[in-house]
Structures are given as C-alpha cells and as structure tokens.
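A further point concerns the way the authors explain their paired sequence and structure data. An entry of this sort, consisting of the sequence and the corresponding backbone structure tokens, reads as follows:
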Amino acid sequence: MPLVERTLEHIRKRAPHLSPFELRELAEQLAEEAEALTDMADDAERDSYFVDDPDLISG
C-alpha cells in the first residue's frame, strides 16, 4: 500500500493549489477508480467462494 499512501499524500499536497473545478474532477475520478476496485474485490471474493466450495468443484 505504500504507493497508494504516496499518491494520496501527493493529492493532499496539491489540493490547495487546485481550482474547485479541478478538485471536483479529481474527486469524481477517484470515486470511479474506487468503485472499479470495489467491483474487482467483489468479483475476486465471489470467485473464491466457488473455489472453496467442494460441491461446486466436483459438480
């Protein structure tokens, strides 16, 4: 997670120098990325249930 922490730190340092429009745009981009990551995590978690369920494997 060091990359994520460094990225967030960079954003926090730049934020005071951005216009309200740029801040809003950045927030929307971050929200979209967060949603995509959440979807990926949900998919991975769901896939792990299939692997862990012997009934589904022997099917």
Remarks:
- The radius of gyration is 18 Å.
